[in-house]
Design brief:
- This protein is globular.
- The protein starts with a strand and ends in a 5-residue tail after the last strand.
- Strand 6 and strand 7 form a beta hairpin.
- It is built from four helices and eight strands.
- Helix 1 packs across helix 2 and helix 3 runs antiparallel to helix 4.
Length: 170
Amino acid sequence: MDRTVDAVLLIGGNLGNSAELCHKAVELIGTETGTITATSALYGSEAWGFEAEQHFVNQAVVAKTDLCPTLVLEKALAIEAQLGRTRNGTGYSSRTMDIDIIFYGNQVIDNAPKLIVPHPRMHLRNFVLIPLFDIIPDYVHPVFGKTIRQLLGECTDTCGVWCLQPSYIG
């Protein structure tokens, strides 16, 4: 019996060579969590929730994994640290790499504050929805009962998002 789950992650950052760091993060996610089955294009975006000197680079990634969600989170945090992320614990800030679990199959998980899936603010952010639309436009959000396409159409976020580089994995 296949016990793998599609973990949908959003990766991104705005310090250092963000595109290169995203490529490295995808490679490490594939090594540490499971097989990468899809990646969105790389997108540039304005900072959301704070002022930043540099724009962000973001990408959505689907990894087929047999790891539990808590272990996926632990691996994601370790990859962030390996790529130079330091956490200051005070709200939004610039960073080399951030990896968020957006979906874990169709599961709804609330182990606040450590892990909440689906990501509780993903539907409010174009920089999340647009990369997700690239790879899973018809995926139905397990809480809202709406597709990514519908959530993107309803999103009122005005922060700019632009394509930097097309997807290199299906």
